[in-house]
Amino acid sequence: MISPFFRKKDAKEQQHDPGAEPMVPQASPEGDSAESDLAVAVEDSLSSTPFMANKSNLDKKSLDLVFAVEQMIQARQHAEINIYELQDRLNHSSGHIERLSRDLKNLNKVIEEREKSILEFEQKLIEKNLKVDQVIEDYRELQSTLSSEIDELKSVIDLEQQKYASIVQAHNEANAEKMKKINEMEERIGRLEVENSHVKQKYENVRQEKAYLSNMISDFTSRMSIPIGQNKNNRND
Q: H or E stretch including 10?
C-alpha cells in the first residue's frame, strides 16, 4: 500500500496540473476492492458525522488510517473525474468514428463511381485501341498494295523510258540522215545549178552561132537566088 504522505503529494501535484490525468492509487489486487468499499463507507460516514473536526485527539495509527482514507477518497474522486473525461473522450471518439464511417462510406461510393468511370474509360480505351490496330493493319495493307503498285509503275516507267530513249535515238538518227540527205541534195542542186548555168551559157553560145549561121545561110541563099547580071550590077553598085 502507498503511504499517505506520497498519496497527498501526488494529489496536490495533480491539483496544480489540471491537464494531467489523475493518479489512481495503486493497491494490491487482493485489497483493492476492500479498500474501495471501505473508502466509500468511510466517506459516507465522514460526510455525515463530525469525525474529522478534530484530529488532535487521534493516535498515529488512527491518523494514518484517516490520511489513507482521505487519499482513497481523493483517488476515487480523481478516478471519477478521469472516468468522466474518458467518457467524454469516448463519446467524442465515437462521434468522430461515426463521422469517419460516414466519410468512409461516401469515399467508398466515390471510389466505386471512380472505379466504374475507370472501367468505362478502360473499355473505351480498349475499343479505341482496337480501332487504332485496325487502322494500322489497313494502313499496312494499303502500304503493301501501294508498294507493289509503285514497283509495277516503276517497271512500266523504266520500260517506257527505254522505249522513249530508243525512239529519241531513232529520231536523232533519222534527223541526222535527213540532214545528210538535205546536205547532199543541196550540194547536188548547187552542182546542177552550176551545170545548168554552163548549159545555158553553151545554149546561148550555140543559139548565137546558130543565128549567125542562119543569117549567113539566108544571106548566101538570097545571093544565090539573084541572076548573075544583077549580081554584077549589085556588086558594081
A: helix 4-16
